[in-house]
Design goal:
Strand content: under 5%
Oligomer: single chain
Distance between the termini: 64 Å
Order of helices and strands: HH
Largest sheet: none
Number of strands: 0
Radius of gyration: 31 Å
Structural class: mainly alpha
């Protein structure tokens, strides 16, 4: 997930810079197709940055859930091992109890 998060953050940063440049260029162009193109690039960069920020947030939430699930699984495994150990002790004690009762 780290690589995906890095890419999302990089896309967000690049889109912010593209947006700034397109805005600066658009401010210095006369009305017309070039200015409209610069405005379209600025808008696209803005939307791309927002999408990258959402992707980054989603990745972070997935990582949080992954940690919670791992913790739950670890606790469940520990409980299973304790239960298994208790059963093994009981099973090992049964022959001893039988011998004591017979002897």
């Amino acid at each position: 997930m780290d690589a995906a998060e890095e890419v999302a953050e990089l896309v967000e940063k690049v889109s912010e810079e593209v947006e700034k440049v397109a805005d600066d260029i658009g401010d210095h162009l006369p009305e017309g197709k070039l200015r409209q193109a610069a405005m379209a690039v600025e808008d696209l960069a803005d939307r791309t940055g927002k999408a990258a920020a959402l992707a980054d947030d989603l990745i972070e939430k997935v990582e949080e859930v992954e940690k919670e699930v791992d913790s739950y699984i670890e606790k469940a495994n520990e409980k299973a091992m304790r239960t298994k150990s208790k059963k093994e002790i009981v099973l090992k004690m049964r022959p001893l109890q039988t011998k004591a009762a017979c002897g």
